[in-house]
Amino acid sequence: MAFYPNDRPREAAPAGEAPKVTSKRQSRLAAVIIVGVAAASLIGAFLTDGPEAIAASLAGADRLWLAAGAGCMLFYWLIESGCLHLAAKRAFPGQRWHTSVVTSMIGQFFNCVTPFASGGQPVQAYYMARQGMPVGRAGSVLLAKFIVYQTVLALYSAAVLVFEYRNFSENIPGFMGLALLGFVVNFAVVVVLYCVGFFPRITGSFFESCLYILGRLRLVRDPEAAGRRVASEIEAFHGGFTELRREGGLLLRLGGLTAVQLTAFFLVPYCVLRALGLNGMAPQDVIAAAAFILMISSFVPLPGASGGAEGSFLVFFGMFFRGSGSVSVALLLWRLFTFYLPIVVGAVFVRHLSQPGRRQQEAHPAA
Question: Fewest CB within 10 angstroms: 119, 177, 283, 352, which?
Fold first, then answer.
């Protein structure tokens, strides 16, 4: 059963041409930011600990725990692909596992190199459409994943905040403000999603009022045109959301898998810390710290939350290194696994965007 029956005949981009997620100028700026933050992290680590100490820490790191960290990321990608495949097969029975894996990894790459992880979904929709899925259904699949992910992340964050608040508030100055800011932002996104889904007219009126005010302040050049675009997006979102509400069993399964996926991601720093010889911390404390970092840094308006992620890591994981070791080395390894590795591996899958899709192959079969 397709849970987005309104398959309007619109294409994500002309046939054979990938959507322009960013301009060349934006792409260069993103590359400069990513390389610049990486260089700053290395320089900061060298200044803090010295190259000899860093080299010694890396040489003495436990290879099995480093492999476990890489394994957590692999498991994270497999669950991501599984969630996408589960939703895609319901909407489009012809979906192949290979397509789901490629689509997921393409999304990993573009999410890492665009601000707010905004570049992944347009390219994913384009690739799935090239593989035969109607564009409307591709959009519904990505909509389902996005709603489930944001909802599970908000619930996960709430649980972590409740059970781990005292531990972190006693060890990190200003923790309450940081944690509440991250939680409120994530929770607000979920509230907006559900308001659009259940109360589209009220939400639309609210956005129109916001655009009017922004227009009066000359922060929006053409409020009426922006309002029409917002109304169109709200209508499309509401249509997809209405159909998704009928898929309760699917959404519950996606929610359970997403919780497992997030846990795997949050275990990466635990593996890094164990690789560096830290044995006294509880896994749930490390998972909580990683969850707080994701909460706080998710909405930093730079590719991969650059700067925000590194700063949050130093704040939250510094408490584990007060007795021994260097948090800067842990930061480098954690960022390598969770940010630079997805870019490198994802780049391998991005080449599929330049290959003929299933639709092109069916239209022009080999002689």
Answer: 177
Q: Of the candidates 108, 156, 155, 112, which has an alpha carbon nearest to the alpha carbon of residue 263?
A: 156
The CA dihedral of 158, 160, 161, 163, to the nearest 10 degrees, is 120
Strand residues in 61-155 grouped as ranges (E): none
Closest CA to 357 of 1, 10, 13: 13
Helix (H/G/I), strand (E/B), else coil: 87? helix
Q: Comparing C-alpha atoms, which of 6, 236, 8, 18 is closest to residue 130?
A: 18
Location of structure tokens 């593996």: 271
For 115, the 3-state DSSP assignment is strand
**Closest of 161, 142, 152, 10 to residue 88, by C-alpha:** 142
SS3 state of residue 11: coil
3-state secondary structure of 224: helix
Give the span between the Cα atoms of 251 and 144, in whole angstroms.
Answer: 8
In one-letter notation, the amino acid at residue 253 is: R
**Exposed / middle / buried, residue 162 (Cβ in 10 Å: 0-12, 13-18, 19+):** exposed
Count CA within 13 A, CB hemisphere, residue 125: 25
Name residue 16's amino acid: G
The Cα 241–Cα 210 span in angstroms is 23
> Does the global pTM surpass 0.70?
yes
Q: Are 172 and 315 a contacting pair, CB within 8 Å?
A: yes
Sequential pLDDT tens for the chain (367 residues): 444 444 443 344 444 556 666 656 777 887 888 888 888 888 888 888 888 888 888 899 999 999 999 999 999 999 999 999 999 998 899 899 999 999 999 999 999 998 878 788 899 999 999 999 988 788 888 888 998 999 999 899 889 888 888 888 888 888 878 788 888 888 888 888 888 888 888 988 988 888 888 888 888 888 888 888 888 888 877 887 787 778 888 899 999 999 999 999 999 999 999 999 888 888 999 999 999 899 888 778 888 888 888 988 988 898 888 655 678 899 999 999 999 999 999 999 999 988 765 654 454 444 3
